[in-house]
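RESIDUES AND SHAPES:
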Amino acid sequence: MYESYWGLTVKPFENTPDPRFLYASPKHEEGLSRLLYGIRERKGAVMLTGVFGCGKTLLGHTLFQELEKDLYNTAFVVNPRMEALDLLRFIAHELGGKEMPNNKADVLVLLKEILMNNLRDGKETVVIIDEAHTVEDPIVFEEIRLLLNMQLTDRFLITILLLGQPELTAAVNSNKQFSQRIAIRYHLDPLSDKETSEYIAHRLRVAGRQEALFEPTALSFIHKHSGGIPRRINQIADMALFVGFSQKAKEVNAELIEEAIKSLEG
C-alpha cells in the first residue's frame, strides 16, 4: 500500500524468512558460520538458540538455500511438535524417501539406506529442525540422538541442526547422552543500537530505497522499544511507514514511531 509513496519496490519489513533481507550482523554471521562449520566438518549435532524473533528461522532458510543441492541432501523440519515416529517419517520423506513404512524399525532401515545412498553419491545428509524448543516428548530427542548413531568408524553420516528458543538448552541438557553429542552451541543475541540502525538501512536498500528515511532519533526509539529483536523492529518500522504514509510525512521521526507503537499495543 505504501511502497510507491516511500520509493520502495517491495515492503521492507515483512516478518517472513526471506534470505534476501538477511542482515549479516556480526552475531548473525557468527551463527551462520558455526552452522556451516558443523556441517562441513561433519560434527554431528549443532544447536543455535535465541529469543523469539531474533532471526534463527531466517538463518536456517538462508543456510538451506546456500547448501549446494548436488553436494547436500537437506531436510528442513518447520514444526517438530509431533510424535517421534512421525518426525522420523517426515525426515525420511524430506530426504527423498518414497514408500514410507508405518513401523519405526522399517523407517530406520529406510533412513539408513538414504544416508548410505547419499554417501555413495558424494552427498552429505543434513537435517535442520526449526522451533526445536516446541518438542514436548523427551523420546523425540532420544530418537534424534539415535540417528547420530548411524555413522561409520571415522565419520557421521548425518548432521542435525537444532534451532530454538533458549528453553531448548534445558530440554537438550535433560538428556545427558544427547547433550554430550552437541558439538557446537551458539546463542544469538539481540541487535545493538548501531546494528538496529544498520538493519533498518539494509532492509530499505534491499526494498529499493538508498536514501535515509528514518531520523536518528526514530532509529534510537525503535531500538529502545524493540530490544533489538528483528521481528519487533519489523513490526514497529512497518507500522511507522504506514502511519507516515497516511499522514503524508516526508520522513519517519520519533513521533511517528511513538504513534506506530501505540497502534501496535492498542
The CA atoms of residues 221 and 254 lie 6 Å apart. The chain has a mean pLDDT of 97. The chain is about 50% helix and 15% strand.
